[in-house]
Design brief:
This protein has about 675 residues and is an alpha/beta fold. About 30% of the residues lie in helices and about 25% in strands. The protein has five domains: about 100 residues, PriA, 3(prime) DNA-binding domain (GIY-YIG endonuclease); about 180 residues, 3-Layer(aba) Sandwich (Rossmann fold), CATH 3.40.50; about 180 residues, Rossmann fold; about 60 residues, no CATH class; about 100 residues, ACT domain (Alpha-Beta Plaits), CATH 3.30.70. Helix 1 packs across helix 2 and helix 3 runs parallel beside helix 4. The radius of gyration is 27 Å and the shape is globular.
Length: about 675
């Protein structure tokens, strides 16, 4: 008779523990999915085995007769011991529930009826770009990485390569080496829009049978089929967005995190994990000992700092693989455009350069990280602004297609309503639309260049399955002359005929209330600019801004990451921001504003009582969150600045307060929810 400790698939904090069962199935092991009786319910519950005991040692004698038995095992779904160990680590690292961490590794759609498998790669075409010879910089990079993989060393590399320097070719060579060593590979990209081109490259080099894909655009059935294909060892390469970091790859030898700086690698759902940290943990495991590659033209300040410290081995790629120069970059001061009487969102200089490039047979990409037609609707008589009734946030105006009425939309909860004909507060007819989004840019461009084809790519224009892929393919094949989009088009994409990239408003990222806003602005400008001149000619970039003197804009225009990093590093050190600290944010939510505030105040007092005297200044009083109300839910935020080296100590304090709260909740139901996020990428 075996005895197993099981984590029950139940979201309650009160059951966040291990439950012991008897089991007479010899096949049961750590990671097995089991069905067990639980509590007073007659319905069997799903659970995952986290420990197996050969005998009853350690179990109290009085408890033994009361133990119930595992009913049966799901032979179709099981996790590996490495995955369970990683989930246990996540629970401590991100202060989440056991089951929240375990669910990251489980297949979507596992409860669905088993049916004929669906091939999510059906119709995908492989493309193997001929590479005559690597550059000297690429060759040295490949040698270092191959040696680490071949010797089964747990090493981490940061490839800091300018846009177009050939990082993807290095990833392909590293994957080949890992496969030669009979190791598994995970390739991560920050956006679903980027999976298409990298899938083509990997299919062309390795064949359809060697590649699986995991991302949220797949149906639950498709995701389950891909997960099972990987778990059964039928494929050795996994490509996907953030969640693919949890793919059930056996004998994992290589994880690549492309565009590692992207905020999408930080989960905004529980558990609020950092994908790079998860990758590091999985590759450190006793069953892996694999290699991590981080790649970016604009590494995050934290990552580059760690490379400077020697935590990552730094590989610099300073030239484009085709030896073409980086694009010529020009800053346009939109304040001067206003003085000259140009009220358009497109400057005269950008319009002239677009015309020149299009006449020369080149394509143009325009980037604006703001969706919709107008960013807010306001009354010029009384100052009224149309806001979401459940979130209190400004509504964005979307104009709608031909024959459709425009709508005001909340980008946080999805609420929609018709725009007012007159001001609902003062009755004035002076209701006007302010600001510009991608819809308005598209309309403007179609009027300026009616003889050229234009298309828009943002979350509003690719709602149907296949639309994203079609729009990108149309642009790649030259069927679209001008592509307008948000950050979906600003990174990673490789189009040979783009002669000009226009960054319509570089100020959008600068005005975010976050210490990372200069970093994000620098990254977005650099990444968007990097889409130009990837063929045989350099290309050009025009940056429109109302802050032309800002160091992030100036240094991005000069392709000067080194000086930008120095400036940011000094600021972060002085202010004790990451990498010189860890930021703990605890968000308290409730349908009762007073309850959310009271919960935040209670945690503030308890944490303050546990912090050492010299650290009490690192705890900041709770306040309304930046997004203080979403979907009729009020939000308060509590922030702790944890000095470098004290994360374990501070996490222990927060965990202690959380445990006390859970114990109190067993006696009296709480009217608020507290969620801990360590090093959030957004303080919304």
């Amino acid at each position: 008779m075996k005895y197993v400790d099981v984590v029950i698939d139940n979201k309650s904090n009160s059951t966040d523990s291990f439950f012991t069962y008897k089991c007479d199935d010899d096949a049961v092991q750590v990671g097995s999915k089991v069905y067990v009786p639980f509590a007073k319910s007659s319905k069997l519950r799903e659970g995952y085995v986290v420990e197996v005991r050969a005998d009853a040692a350690g179990i109290e004698e009085a408890v033994l007769p009361k133990l119930r038995a595992v009913d049966h095992v799901d032979s179709e779904v099981s996790l590996t011991e490495e995955m369970i160990r990683s989930a246990m680590w996540m629970r401590g690292r991100y202060l989440c529930r056991y089951i929240d961490a375990i669910r990251c590794f489980t297949p979507a759609g596992s409860a669905a009826v088993r049916r004929e498998k669906q091939d999510s790669l059906a119709g995908e075409q492989g493309f193997a770009e001929p590479v005559e010879a690597l550059t000297d910089e690429q060759e040295k990079a490949v040698q270092q990485i191959d040696e680490a993989i071949g010797n089964r060393r747990n090493e981490r590399f940061l490839i800091h390569g300018v846009t177009g320097s050939g990082k993807t070719e290095i990833y392909i060579r590293a994957a080949k080496k890992a496969l030669d060593e009979d190791r598994g590979v995970i390739i991560l990209v920050p956006e679903i829009s980027l999976t298409g081109q990298i899938i083509e490259r990997f299919l062309g080099n390795f064949g359809e049978d060697s590649v699986a894909v995991l991302h949220s655009r797949l149906s639950a059935g498709e995701r389950y089929d891909q997960w099972k294909k990987i778990r059964d060892g039928l494929t050795r390469i996994v490509i996907g967005a953030r969640s693919a970091a949890f793919a059930p790859v056996d004998n994992l030898g290589l994880i690549v995190v492309d565009e590692e700086h992207e905020s999408t690698y930080k989960s905004d759902f529980t558990p609020k994990y950092d994908t790079v940290e998860v990758a590091v943990k999985r590759l450190q495991d006793q069953d892996s000992k694999g290699v991590l590659i981080l790649g970016s033209a604009t590494p995050s300040v934290v990552t580059y700092s760690r490379a400077k410290e020697g935590i990552y081995k730094l590989i610099e790629l300073t030239k484009r693989y085709n030896e073409v120069s980086l694009p010529k970059t020009e800053i346009v001061d939109m304040r001067e455009e206003m003085k000259e009487g140009n009220r358009s969102v497109i400057s005269c200089r950008l319009a002239d350069e677009m015309r020149a490039q299009l006449d020369a047979g080149k394509q143009v990409m325009l980037f604006l990280n703001r969706r919709g037609y107008s960013t807010f609707v306001s009354c010029r008589e009384c100052g009224y602004v149309a806001k979401c009734p459940t979130c209190g946030l400004s509504l964005t105006y979307h104009r709608g297609g031909r024959g459709e009425e425009g709508r005001l939309v909340c980008h946080y909860c999805g609420h929609e309503e018709a725009p007012p004909a007159v001001c609902p507060e003062c009755g004035s007819s002076y209701v006007r639309y302010f600001g510009s989004g991608t819809e308005k840019i598209e309309e403007t461009i179609r009027k300026l260049f009616p003889e050229h084809t234009a298309d828009r790519l943002d979350l509003d224009s690719v709602k149907k399955k296949g639309e994203l892929k079609k729009k990108l393919k149309d642009f790649e094949k030259g069927r679209t002359d001008i592509l307008i989009g948000t950050q979906l088009i600003a990174k990673g994409l490789d189009f040979k005929n783009v002669g000009l990239v226009g960054i319509v408003s570089a100020d959008v990222s600068l005005n975010i209330p976050d210490f990372r806003s200069p970093e994000r602005a620098f990254q977005l400008i650099t990444q968007a600019a990097g889409r130009a001149g990837r063929g045989s000619e350099p290309g050009s970039v025009i940056i429109q801004t109302y802050s032309p003197e800002h160091y992030a804009v100036v240094m991005a225009a000069e392709h000067d990451y080194g000086h930008f990093f120095e400036a940011e590093d000094k600021f972060r050190r002085f202010m004790m921001y990451p990498p010189y600290s860890d930021i703990f944010q605890i968000v308290f939510t409730s349908h009762d504003q007073g309850a959310a505030k009271a919960g935040a105040e209670k945690w503030y007092r308890r944490i303050g009582a546990l912090l050492p005297v010299e650290d009490k200044a690192n705890l900041f009083r709770p306040q309304e969150a930046y997004m203080s109300k979403i979907r009729d839910t009020y939000r308060y935020s509590l922030v702790i600045k944890c000095p470098k080296g004290k994360r374990h100590e501070y996490a222990g304090i927060v965990y202690k307060v959380r445990a006390e709260e859970i114990e109190e909740a067993r006696r009296k139901k709480q009217d608020y929810i507290a969620v801990v996020d360590i090093n959030p990428y957004s303080f919304s």
